[in-house]
Amino acid sequence: MCSRIDIAHLADHPETIPVLQEWFKREWVDYYGPGGPGDAALDLQAYSGRNRLPIGLIAFYDDQLCGIAALKAESIPTHAHLCPWAAAGLVFPQFRRRGFGARLIRELENVARELGYPTIYSGTRTSASLLERGGWEFIERVIYNGEEISIYQKAL
C-alpha cells in the first residue's frame, strides 16, 4: 500500500483531462471507445466541479497522475432516487492494488459528508471487495447495460 498519495480536485488540474480521456477510452471501450455512446471529454469536464455534483477527484503519487473517481448525482437510471454515487473510479494499471482506489473512495465519502449527504452509493462490476473492505453494505444486484452490477451503500 502506498503511503504517499496526494488527492486533488480535478477542477484544480484541468491539464490532466486529455490523459484521463485516453484512460477512459481504453478502460471502458464499449462506452467511450469508437462508436460508444459516451463522451469522455464531456464527462471529465462535468467532473470539474468543486462545491456541487458532479465532483471529480484525482490521485497523484510523486506528482504522477495515477487515478480518478467522481461523486455524481446519478449513476444507474433505475435508481435515480439514490444520491450521491461514487463512480468513474479508475486507477491506472501500474498503480492498482496499492491503495489508490481505497483512498479515492474515502475522499469521495468525505466530500459527500461535507456536502451534507447521510449516505453514499456505488454500483460496480469489478470493485465489490474494495467497497466491502471499506465498510460498504451490499444492497442488490441489477442488470444495467446488459451487465450485472452490484449496488452498495455506506452510511456517512
Fill in the keyword field for this structure:
156 residues; alpha+beta; Aminopeptidase; 3-stranded antiparallel beta sheet; 28% helix
Cα radius of gyration in angstroms: 15 Å
Number of helices: 5
Q: Mean pLDDT across all residues, rounded?
A: 93
Spatial sequence of strands, sheet with the most strands: 1-2-3-4
- CATH class label: Alpha Beta
Strand portion, in percent?
Answer: 25-35%
- In the CATH hierarchy, the architecture is 3-Layer(aba) Sandwich
Poorly predicted runs: none
Describe the global form: globular
Largest sheet: 4 strands, antiparallel
Number of domains: 1
Kindly report the name of the CATH homologous superfamily.
Gcn5-related N-acetyltransferase (GNAT)
Q: What name does CATH use for the topology?
A: Aminopeptidase
Helix content: 25-40%
